[in-house]
Amino acid sequence: GAGVSQSPSNKVTEKGKDVELRCDPISGHTALYWYRQSLGQGLEFLIYFQGNSAPDKSGLPSDRFSAERTGGSVSTLTIQRTQQEDSAVYLCASTSVGGMMQGNETQYFGPGTRLLVL
Amino acid sequence: SQQGEEDPQALSIQEGENATMNCSYKTSINNLQWYRQNSGRGLVHLILIRSNEREKHSGRLRVTLDTSKKSSSLLITASRAADTASYFCATKAGGTSYGKLTFGQGTILTVHP
Q1: CB pairs under 8 A between A and B
Q2: Rg of chain A over all Cα atoms, to the nearest angstrom
């Protein structure tokens, strides 16, 4: 089946505007992650969804960032009142639950959304 | 500094040579994974090694893990120009019940034809 997809591929916005980034995980994957990658840097964990459990929001950098996952599938990451430092590539990954407890899971990444805040 | 730090930050070699990248981490882990990224886009999983494993092979890739030194290495043998990419190690902390990964800063590998 299809891999993880993200939209839009690129987003240019003006400082102060709100943006929404979308992630469609692999069908059947119940775990979904958002990461942020600033230029030339590694990935920074933002938020994690697992089934119907409360999400782990510990990585969200500020209250301007929020995310939701509807119906246990598609997820939307929203950044309100964007700032220039929000410019980065936002990556989504999904994985199946089955292997999670055995330490043999693989995260499947989408192509990312490149966000530029002017 | 971050869990999962790689060195070197950049590596430039000729096609056919071997490339070795190292990763160090600070806390106990459940597993360590290596990912590859082309052109700042999505990451592709290469190989996973569990904390009770010492070495693993996949094609031209060889990964070692030394939990006593909290370090891992990724060896790419007989490199090709197509191996040019950024390589990241990522650790899954021990004791966590889900797969949150902590990534290093990455090694930029350039293979010249």
Answers
A1: 71
A2: 14
* DSSP label of A97: S
Strand order through the sheet with A19-24: A5-7, A19-24, A75-79, A65-69
Nearest to A37 by CA among B76, B35, B70, B72: B35
Nearest CB neighbour to A50, from listed B88, B98, B105: B98
Contacting residues for A82 by C-beta, under 8 A, at least 6 apart: A13, A14, A15, A16, A17, A18, A19, A64, A115, A117
Token pair for A5: 């997809």
pLDDT tens, A33-58? 999 998 877 889 999 998 888 888 98
Inform me whether the C-beta atom of residue A103 falls under 8 Å from chain B C-beta atoms. Answer: yes
Instruction: Residue A44: list chain B partners with CB under 8 A.
Output: 103
Q: Which residues of B33-65 are buried (b: 16+ CB within 10 A; e: fewer)?
A: bbbbbeeebbbebbbbbbeeeeeeeeeebbbbb
Per-residue pLDDT of B9-19, as tens digits, reads 899 999 999 99
Q: What share of chain B is helix, strand, coil (3-state, %, to 5)?
A: 5, 60, 40
Instruction: Report CB contact under 8 Å: B45, A108.
Output: yes
Q: Is A101 on the interface with B (CB under 8 A)?
A: yes
- Predicted pLDDT at B30: 86
The string of pLDDT tens digits covering residues B78-104 is 999 999 999 999 998 766 556 678 888
